[in-house]
Amino acid sequence: MFIFLMSGFELELYAVHEFLYIYWYPYEFLVGFLVSALTRTENILLAQEEYAEHQSKIQSNSGSGGAAKNRKAAKPKKNKKQQRPYRAEIVFYHALLSLCGGMYKAMGALTKDGRVRLPLSKFDNEEIRYNRRFLPFATLTSPPPVSYVEFKNIRDHMMRPSAEELYSYAAKHFDQARNVLESIQNPDQEMLDLLQIARTNFVVMNVLARGHQKEVKRQPEFDFSKHNYFPIIKLK
User: Fold this and answer.
1) Which spans does this entry mark as compositional bias, Basic residues (predicted)?
2) Residue 33 domain-assigned?
């Protein structure tokens, strides 16, 4: 579901004014669902390892009485560090979650600030566009599909603060993504590219939060040259 939505950026299917709900959906529902599922899986595996170790101790202590007493006591095994097989994926998804949140709040701020070109209302029906974009999810049950009415209620609540506050919220998300990506040891090229995007967008959001180009309402450029899913926001 995440790749399906993000591939629309790669295929240039979305208008800029649609970016808000495209990033909102994975931020609110998909990426967190993945993190939760992987975390639960890890916890189950760890519990299974502990149970197996406990059973092994019980069996080793249930040897024959006299023979067990005369037998030389076995050296206790060193505690083996519990494995967390999905830790790297979970950390990476946390970074994606913050990037999606940053783009969602950034698009909200840019829209409220009058910097996103919107279609004329007589030629546009947002509900129809929303339903068409997310139509493939309608038959799925986990995670369940989200209606346009739910999206509209969440967006209206998010848009209550001023544009400057929304820019600050977006900056915090990009800063969280930066911190997570910087904590990853031996990052690959994609992680390094995402780190550069997070750093740059963090600066841009802070600049706009301070009122830069307040009187100029030009739509920014969204540069996807570094990554197919997340752009660098460039002021004109």
Assistant:
1) 69-83
2) yes
18, with CB counted inside 10 A (0-12, 13-18, 19+), is middle
d(CA 14, CA 150): 21
| Helix-helix angle 148-158:87-112, to 10 degrees | 70
Degrees (nearest 5) of the Cα angle 106, 108, 112? 120
Find out whether 171 and 209 touch, Cβ atoms under 8 Å: yes
**Assigned domain for 66 exists:** no
Please state which of the ranges 62-66, 101-105, 137-141 shows the lowest mean pLDDT.
Answer: 62-66
Identify the H or E element spanning 222.
strand 221-223
In a domain, 218, yes or no: yes
Q: Enter the DSSP assignment of 219.
A: P
Show the CA angle centred on residue 151, arms to residues 214 and 219, nearest 5°. Answer: 25
Other beta carbons within 10 angstroms of residue 96's beta carbon come to 23
Nearest to 26 by CA among 93, 112, 76: 93
Domain that holds residue 101: 1-54+85-234
β-strand partners of 222: 233
Strand (E) or helix (H) holding 233: strand 232-234
- Number of domains within the chain: 1
Q: Using CA atoms, how far apart are residues 108 and 19, in angstroms rounded to an integer?
A: 9
Distance in angstroms (rounded) separating the CA atoms of residues 204 and 200: 6
* Tens of pLDDT, residues 33-73: 999 999 998 888 888 888 888 788 888 877 545 444 444 44
